[in-house]
Amino acid sequence: MLSTPELLLIEDDPGIRRFLRASLAAGQYRLCECETGQDGLAQAAARQPELIILDLGLPDMDGVALIRQVRSWSQIPIIVLSAQGQESVKIAALDAGADDFVSKPFAVGELTARIRAALRRSAGLPGGGQIFRAGRIEVDLDKRVVLADGEEVHLTPIEFKLLRVLVRHAGRVITQRQLLNEVWGPHHMEQAHYLRVYMAQLRRKLEVEPARPRHFLTEPGVGYRLVGDLAC
Amino acid sequence: MLSTPELLLIEDDPGIRRFLRASLAAGQYRLCECETGQDGLAQAAARQPELIILDLGLPDMDGVALIRQVRSWSQIPIIVLSAQGQESVKIAALDAGADDFVSKPFAVGELTARIRAALRRSAGLPGGGQIFRAGRIEVDLDKRVVLADGEEVHLTPIEFKLLRVLVRHAGRVITQRQLLNEVWGPHHMEQAHYLRVYMAQLRRKLEVEPARPRHFLTEPGVGYRLVGDLAC
DNA sequence: CCGCTTTCTTGATACTTTCTTGATGCCGAT
DNA sequence: ATCGGCATCAAGAAAGTATCAAGAAAGCGG
After folding, report:
1. pLDDT band, very low/low/confident/very high, at A232 (cuts 50, 70, 90)
2. CA of B126 to C1' of C3 (A)
3. What is the mean pLDDT of residues A158-182?
4. Are strands A100-103 and A78-82 parallel, antiparallel or unpaired?
């Protein structure tokens, strides 16, 4: 069960890495660590973490450039750490797309509070559980639980990721590229076949008549759309 | 957004108010100022600003409590200012629902960068979906959904592309070449036949009397025009 | 560390929708 | 009447989609 959020830490200083590993990985979050910007970019694309903590002063590339690259395909929250508290650096990072900026030395408590704030925002929820309903289907994104006719339905990690994206955009059409990007990452945006396999899987598990879907609708040539009771 | 974003400033210190008024109200934003927490809450509810800047050290009420109250009904971004840089205060404010925390004394450049970051984020989510209406027709370009008499109408990719161009230029005549260019690309600008086929399709699906179109009008020798209720 | 189970990836095939294209008829203008 | 621009219908071609299934990979428990 992958319920704890995964954070990606991009930081070259081993001391700080150890420090944050101790502070963050202790139950609350899973932590994935990188030492270089290149590796960080690759990991961000491959693992699709829920949040990125980025040290601006990397040896191999400019931190602001890294932010821009990530922002070219994703809205993952990025919290920047930096030894330089210079105002111009902060502005550059924030305007490049960073969500928050923390100067070193920092207090862990504050950092974790800012992480919570960023995750809360990106979840799009006040913190209390929002439940999506569509006919006999019930989805609780927080608890990571899906019910059909009140019965719990087991979903694999990818199935749930896909469902989550659909639920978050419920009512509107999502393009195949967008789904592929958000579920498999930017390197798989041509593998539309994955989408078909997993959409069929979701329908098989959640639709009454998988062959005649009432909620997981296909928009041929475009993408898919999840229609539920709460229409916006 | 058509007009400049409105910010609500809740701050008892007249000096800082004057300072921020000078920095923020100069063209970029509209600024609404309050001296007390009570007034701030009232203004937040009444004016629905796009962002709140809140001084934690208000004379009449606890800032953290104010954050909680606002959060009980709204997700407006809140940036906290505070003279106390104490970690526990920051954590309390962020966990109460604040989006960001800036300690005094602060640099305007950083504050405005953080404001931009917060506004950018909040702009992304709810979707400023403007809906085009024309008689019984309703077009939501964001959701990619079209209704006629409240009933959903399915459009193929090309049909929707064509409709989108028409909606974006609603009220004006669009030449055939322009439509062909925007829908099929610059290599098909001579295929006026495509246009006739698909325009007929749109009329068949959306007009009450396809033979006597009321909204999808032909301008002989020139192109087409979509007339609706909201002109822009 | 190994074997077992679950999940992911990939391929093959049948099926559906959509696009393109040609034929035909209408209407107004010359 | 004839011609050019427009509307409509229809059918084959092309593109896109659903589903099954099996080997590969990854995760889990002992």
Report:
1. very low
2. 50
3. 95
4. parallel
Q: How far is CA B159 from the centre of its chain?
A: 26
CA distances from B222 to A36, B141, B200 (A): 58, 26, 17
**pLDDT surpasses 70 at B126:** no
Neighbours of B24 (CB within 10 A): 19
B98 contacts on A by Cβ (under 8 Å): 117
Task: Report residue B178 as tokens.
Answer: 């322009």
Binary contact (B113, A99; C-beta < 8 A): no
Label residue A1 by pLDDT band (50, 70, 90).
very low
Domains and CATH numbers, chain A: 6-124 (3.40.50.2300), 131-231 (1.10.10.10)
CB contact under 8 A, A99 and B121: yes
Q: Tell me how close the Cα of B82 comes to any Cα of chain A, in angstroms.
A: 14
DSSP conformation letters of A13-71: -HHHHHHHHHHHTTTT-EEEEESSHHHHHHHHHHH--SEEEEES--SSS-HHHHHHHHH
Q: Is the CB of B159 under 7 A from strand C?
A: yes
User: Which of A11-25, A202-216, B142-156 has the weakest average pLDDT?
Assistant: A11-25
Backbone angles phi, psi at B150, to 5 degrees: 80, -15
Q: Which one is predicted more confidently, A85 or A190?
A: A190
B128 touches chain A (CB under 8 A): no
